[in-house]
Amino acid sequence: MKKSLSILLAVILVTSIVITGCQSKAGDDKVIVVGASPEPHAQMLKLVADDLEKEGYELKIIEFTDYVKPNLALDEKELDANFFQHLPYLEDFNAQNNLDLVALANTHIEPMGLYSNKFTDISELKDGAEIAIPNDTVNGSRALLFLEDNGLIKLKKGVGFKATEKDIVDNPKNITIIPLEAAQLPRALDDVDASAINGNYALQAGLNPTKDAILIERSDSPYANIVAIRKGEENSPKLKALVKALQSDKVKAFIEEKYEGGVIPSF
């Protein structure tokens, strides 16, 4: 599918939230148009809208519910920045789609968790269980590494961030891996034994990683979320203002109080 068609679909499917005004657009020196996942990214952006207004900038937030359209929209200059992904995902997306997007700053970590509607302790995981994981390359690999860290499987040595189901060399519980679109993982909980769910989709589904997950990713996870921009725009005053607002004590306190460990500041 061509990028232009993808962007058209994004316009149809995306929910837009305009903080101030309705004629603002990307490229305006005093308007910052950011594409974001609803949780926790859009919530964090809403929190700093007034702070940016005091600095002379209007913030427009466009919410996306998938992991593809925000990068295409950024590349097509329909956004000034996006805020939904971690660096390993961005690097893989660039390589797969021949884009040149870069990370401007780290913001937080959304720990991946293993959730189940069928058991409450990992010791109850039955032989032959079905575990759903994200079907994109990077987050699928992240889920497999997460399962390996918790002793459920063993992966071929050295595969790292490129791990796939084919790299499983030991599977003592005979687990069947079910790749699904990341946004569908919470909905699949009634159909599989467990799902490895990214933090943002867990939060959107009303799940708290620290309270509801049977297993949770380590706090030293390399998957910190980032503000992504087009290469060459790193010195943009308005993008620097956006990062300053997101890396504030105000945002850190908000994350710690609202998400209670389900989101962890990384600045």
Question: Can I get a quick summary?
Answer:
The protein is an alpha/beta fold and 267 residues long.
What does this structure look like?
The chain has 267 residues and is α/β, with parallel strands linked by helices. Helix content is 34%, strand content 23%. It is built from 9 helices and 14 strands. The strands form 4 sheets. Strands 10-7-11-6-12 form a 5-stranded mixed sheet. A 4-stranded mixed sheet has the order 1-3-2-4, with helices on both faces. Strands 13-5-14 form a 3-stranded antiparallel sheet. α1 crosses α3 and α2 (38-54) crosses α8. Residues 1-24 have low confidence and may be disordered.
